[in-house]
Design goal:
By secondary structure, this protein is an alpha/beta fold. It contains nine helices and eight strands. Strand 2, helix 2 and strand 3 form a beta-alpha-beta unit. The longest helix has 14 residues. The protein binds D-xylitol-5-phosphate (DX5) and zinc ion.
């Protein structure tokens, strides 16, 4: 299957359903609820080293790419992500996010450059216990900052509200220093927690269990989008990320 791809949505707020909670025997059906004009598809790659869980690699990202024209947001929870950047980009990733805590062959700045060199947008993720300071040297050049709102590794965990302080701080940093990175939250996001994260300044909302873990995923995604609609973002004017 091939699609004429629409302009990719980069104007927040953006919902990013995570296929981690989808039924992989019915992936095509799961992806029909994603609106390519406004949503992203979030792909959680885990390696049983950086996190205890093991999910999938470029093969499934390629399947996702063939099943939807939507923006493909790849979250790498793996050691040495630089070794697989080209493979994920070739599989169809529009954006590749690596963890600042992961072991890398090179400096993180170099890894982010390597992501950009593939043509993908570059994201950097921080775990709940990692201070924003660990990402700060990279913020000016980032396309996405992913603030984990649970400990990475599994879907269906409880939202950690204390992580919102980092969302606020990232928003303030961008107001003060500039930069065009979007702020994404991931973990325990459902309509109520999305509204809180939005108020703190989050712009992209990953949700697995709250979408694909529900009896009616399409309505659940709509409920998530509706949760943004009634909530203003944190400080600052609406922001448009670069492509
Ligand atoms: C967790 C993953 C998440 C996961 C979120 O390590 O990074 O993207 O899919 O799942 P929920 O929304 O169920 O917390
Ligand atoms: Zn994720």
């Amino acid at each position: 299957m091939s699609f004429a791809r629409p302009p990719l949505p980069l104007t927040p707020p953006i919902a990013a359903p995570s296929i981690l909670s989808a039924d992989f025997s019915r992936l095509a059906e799961a992806l029909t609820i994603v609106d390519p004009a406004r949503d992203w598809v979030h792909c959680d790659v885990m390696d049983n080293h950086f996190v205890p869980n093991l999910t999938f690699g470029p093969l499934i990202v390629r399947a996702v790419r063939r099943l939807t024209p939507a923006f493909v947001d790849v979250h790498l929870m793996i050691d040495h992500p630089e070794r697989l950047l080209a493979a994920f980009r070739e599989a169809g990733a529009d954006q590749i996010t690596v963890h600042v805590e992961a072991p890398h062959d090179h400096e993180v700045a170099h890894v982010l450059d390597a992501v950009r060199a593939t043509g993908a947008r570059a994201g950097l993720a921080i775990k709940p216990g990692t201070p924003l300071a660990a990402a700060e040297p990279h913020l000016a050049a980032l396309d996405l900052l992913l603030v984990m709102t649970v400990e990475p590794g599994f879907g269906g965990q409880e939202f950690m509200a204390e992580t919102l302080d980092k969302v606020r701080a990232a928003r303030e940093w961008r107001e003060q220093h500039g930069g065009s990175f979007l702020i994404e939250v991931d973990g325990g996001i459902a309509p109520a927690t999305a509204a809180r994260a939005r108020a703190a300044g989050a712009e992209v909302f990953v949700a697995g269990h709250a979408v694909y873990g529900q009896p009616e995923p399409r309505q659940a995604l709509q409920a998530l989008r509706a949760a943004f609609a009634g909530t203003e973002a944190g400080a600052g004017a609406p922001h448009r990320g670069r492509r």
